[in-house]
Amino acid sequence: MYICNETIDKLVQESRKNTRKRSHLLLHETSEDKIQSMLFGLQPLTKIRAHRHSNETETICSIKGQIAIFFFNDSGEVIDRRLLNQKNIIYKFNPKVWHSYVCLEEDTVGWEIKEGPYLPGKVQFAQWCPEENDSNFIFFQQQLIDLLEVSNEEFKDLSFSTSHDGE
Q1: At 111, phi and psi to the nearest 5?
Q2: Domain range spanning residue 87?
Q3: ∠ CA 33-22-44, rounded to 5°
Q4: How many domains does the chain have?
Q5: 85-88 contact pairs (CB < 8 A, 24+)
Q6: How many CB atoms within 10 Å of residue 30?
Q7: How far apart are CA 16 and CA 10, in angstroms?
Q8: Bridge-partner residues for 81, per DSSP?
Q9: CA–CA separation, 163 vs 167, rounded Å?
Q10: Band of the pLDDT at 156, cuts 50, 70, 90?
Q11: In the chain, what is the straight-line distance between the N-terminal and C-terminal CA atoms, in Å?
């Protein structure tokens, strides 16, 4: 399967039109595939509720734009954050830890790779995080954005370590 610029442009256009401000293109054939992979388009203020998975690894790649990944403890306190952009392109982590994403730039495009199979019941949403349709979600998201009001040098260098082991 080739992914061309026209595909990326279509994904961006779909995310602009979508009420949830996001779109995706599945790159795996079935939910039973051992590797689940998708391209996603995001716009600022898309709402991605804090969650965790039972699979062992997740990799996020920045193709265009900027994405911040936030990691939380069981009480909902931010314990770490990572910035993905054209300088820091890939981050691999253990998705058993609570995490969420914030899109920081219009027309952001990323690539997510996880272990399969995809089992919807294996995704756990944080009870301390408002649901996407809750009017309080915007306050939750703004608190995360406020944490980014520091220089980019304060973000840790990205590496392939999996320091977020959820233990």
Answers
A1: -135, 125
A2: 5-148
A3: 135
A4: 1
A5: 86/62, 88/62, 88/155, 88/157, 88/158
A6: 10
A7: 10
A8: 70
A9: 10
A10: very low
A11: 37
